[in-house]
Design brief:
- The protein is mainly beta and 129 residues long.
- It is built from one helix and eleven strands, in the order βββββββββαββ.
- The strands form two sheets. Strands 2, 4, 5, 6, 9, 10 and 11 form a seven-stranded mixed sheet that branches. A four-stranded antiparallel sheet has the order 1-3-8-7, with no helix packed on it.
- A hairpin with a 4-residue loop joins strand 7 and strand 8.
- The chain starts with a strand and ends with a strand.
- The mean pLDDT is 96.
Length: 129
């Protein structure tokens, strides 16, 4: 059974940084494209970033504006999201997803169906002074 465990969330002041991690077990990590989504209270789930199987290609949501960097370490079965210049609007639960498909393009992730992936339980990021 594939399991995803996110970590690294917490409380950070505006302008600060956090690094989220997503460790995958029970499957072949390198066979999954990985992604991060987030959901703020009262809002719909939002695409944050995605990374290809090799890590060579990444996509980001429009709101990221160069502040976040997604990476992966296939030897450690872990994906990362480095978040800089955080602001209160970034407050949300951040979810990691391991995509089971063979497609990797921007539209695929911008119009994502939850049943395409294995999901973690999320990690809360709160940006507040």
């Amino acid at each position: 059974q594939v399991q995803l465990v996110e970590s690294g969330g917490g409380l950070v002041q505006p302008g600060g940084s956090l690094r989220l991690s997503c460790e995958v077990s029970g499957g072949t990590f390198s066979s999954y494209a990985m992604a991060w989504f987030r959901q703020a209270p009262g809002k719909e789930r939002e695409f944050v970033s995605a990374i290809s199987w090799s890590g060579m290609t990444t996509y980001y949501g429009d709101f990221v504006k160069g502040r976040f960097t997604m990476s992966r370490d296939n030897a450690k079965s872990t994906a990362y999201l480095q978040m800089n210049s955080l602001n209160p609007e970034d407050t949300a639960v951040y979810y990691c997803a391991a995509d089971r498909g063979e497609i990797f393009d921007e539209d695929y992730y911008r119009n994502y169906s939850p049943d395409r992936a294995y999901w973690g339980k999320g990690t809360l990021v709160t940006v507040s002074s």
